[in-house]
Design a protein that fits this description.
Strand order of the largest sheet: 15-12-14-13-17-18-16
Bound molecules: dihydroflavine-adenine dinucleotide
Oligomer: single chain
Shape: globular
Radius of gyration: 23 Å
Number of helices: 16
Distance between the termini: 49 Å
Amino acid sequence: SAYSKLMDDKFLQCLYQDSSANATQPEFVFTQQDTSYSPILQSTIINLRFSTPTTPKPLAIITPLTYSHVQSTVICSKSFGYRIRIRSGGHDYAGLSYTSYDQSPFVVLDLKELRKITIQSGKKTAWVESGAMVGELYYWVSQESQNLGFPAGICPTVGIGGQLSGGGFGALVRKYGLAADNVVDAKIVDVNGRILDRELMGEDLFWAIRGGGGASFGIVVAWKVNLVDVPEKVAVFSLSKTLDQGASDLFDKWQYKGHKLSEDLFIRVIIQPTSDGAGNRTIQVIFNSMFLGSVDQLMETMADSFPELGLQEKDCSEMSWIESVLYFSIYPKGSSIDVLRDRQPEPRSYFNGKSDYVKEPIPEEALEEIWKWCLEEDNPILIMEPHGGRMDEIEETTTPYPHRKGYLYNIQYFEKWDNETIEASEKHISWMRRIYKNMTPYVSKNPRAAYVNYRDLDLGTNDVDNTSYLGAMKWGSSYFNENFKRLAMVKGAVDPDNFFYYEQSIPPLISSE
Ligand code: FDA
């Protein structure tokens, strides 16, 4: 309509006004009239559930080229009454970085152009902008030195911005903790459009952005991280067992050992239905591992600590740490590490996920039932990632991520599908709700812990007309346990009017004193 065209024009004028004198100003705002709008919007939507004709779409997509563009986006959006959705890598499980469900007009601030990585290898630090993918950081760190790495997630296409905001764990988690645990400085654009580094933002806000979930406090444009030592060669293996091959017993043993092994050894477990030689559906348990050392040392460590797995030298390979990143990724075997630098996108699909944490090994008798629930569904996958090691040494309150000592492993329930119908989605989503409910006796309770980076709106959402701290406790304490209150107080101090509101943003708690 004419009115919305007028608003578009005024909003554009506001955004471009800093640079209006410069006619060669490159475009960084795309409204629904622009032909690039749709391709840019789609570019990092990897969950097709949030890319349908009825998914609410932004009025405009802004792809800032400089920090000042981020600042003017905050100032202009505030004065026009638009909400901002912040997107780095677009992997949010609920699509909250590019859609919004509360009917208010919104713009997407897509940081894909802000992706500079500067490495100070002598100091073992790097500055990385939020729009880089974790795989790019891994790549450039490895180009600087074969002996340096960074402990973030296994999937290389995830954005730095979202992942570091929510924690970030992968194959180095037992040795070095979360990605967020290794952040030493950051630059954030706050609700007033100021750029603040650690010193200017103060320790409370700096604490909150390292795991308190993205998008509640401002736009983090860059992070300074500590790089970590990795040996020239690491050893990897992926050993698969079906039920007939003793998978249940081995999984049971892993539950007692996975979190207690040497910090150099990370063995995660992937559980999924498969078909056996005779064409029957059965359960396959894959032990998927990285060891910071040689195959010989790995064999020794396994003989001492997990002989039951029966690992043999022929099951293992030695490679550089950066090659191990590819080994764990979805890229085809034999791909060059350049795929990381080239920002190869994640394949798109419809998917759903949920998370749990286990504090006491699941009783062996219960496993059969869990396998049965998995066999009832088409293509589910349960990924269990051990904690322990460094994770036990970090206090629950050091960063907002509270699942530390005493948490044996994380479970992620995940399912992908490619049928676009609503019925297909509903079937898969309701299966996952069922297994999540059935798992209640076997997982952490009071609160039942969840991982904010595997965002789950079933845990609860804010109410747009009345966002309350108590209302948000349900999901807030699952993600952050006792840290939720401090997060809400930081929010109350830095964004009391709740400009950075979204379905699972931290509500502001304003102290009455
Ligand atoms: P996206 O851009 O969607 O942002 C996620 C959230 O953070 C949104 O709320 C967004 O607004 C906010 N945000 C983004 N950038 C921000 C910024 N610069 N400042 C403030 N807020 C910002 N996790 C893990 O720990 N280990 C793993 O191995 C994996 N693997 C994995 C595989 C796949 C296929 C998926 C889909 C996801 C994972 N994850 C994961 C989960 C992942 O860490 C999580 O989804 C991250 O939040 C995604 O970050 P992106 O920047 O890609 O997402």
